[in-house]
Write a structure and sequence with these properties.
mainly alpha; single chain; transmembrane; CPBP family intramembrane metalloprotease; membrane; 5 helices; transmembrane helix
């Protein structure tokens, strides 16, 4: 993840790291503060949920994140820009639900790191790597919301 080589491996590694971290954080949050507000995705179902969570949101958020990171790197070292970006995304997601913000900063730490590393190869390559990683991160929840996951797995 520190060098822009083998995009498929960066995507896979980034996805596994972001998924594992967010699951651990979500478990901690739910055990420490079980009544904390969780995100509400009422109204999302079927292919609409998959499109929004796996295609639209990852691309839009990556474009916004990329712009923010390019700006932050004018004033901060890369590591500080990555941490600031992740914290900003945590705050932004907290506006929807506090627990979401606590769990989401970790994946955005991974996404921001991937963006900064892959931007060395080009802005759009970085966008592609991060969007793919983010899409994989959102795929499981999207399939659950869409109703395509077996009830035994929910």
């Amino acid at each position: 993840m520190r060098e822009p080589r083998r995009a498929w491996l960066a995507i896979l590694t980034g996805w596994l790291l972001s998924l594992a971290g967010s699951i651990v954080l979500a478990l901690i949050i739910s055990s420490v503060a079980p009544d904390m507000a969780k995100p509400d995705f009422a109204g999302l179902s079927g292919m609409y949920a998959i499109f929004l969570l796996v295609v639209f949101s990852p691309l839009l958020e990556t474009l916004i994140m990329g712009g923010i990171l390019v700006l932050l790197q004018r004033f901060l070292k890369p590591a500080a820009a990555v941490i600031t970006s992740a914290l900003l995304w945590g705050v932004a997601h907290s506006l929807g639900a506090l627990s979401w913000g606590f769990a989401i900063w970790w994946p955005f730490l991974i996404f921001s790191t991937l963006f900064v590393v892959w931007r060395q190869r080009g802005f759009w390559i970085a966008v592609g790597v991060v969007t793919a990683t983010h899409a994989l991160q959102n795929l499981g929840p999207a399939l659950m919301l869409a109703g395509y996951v077996s009830p035994a797995l929910r």
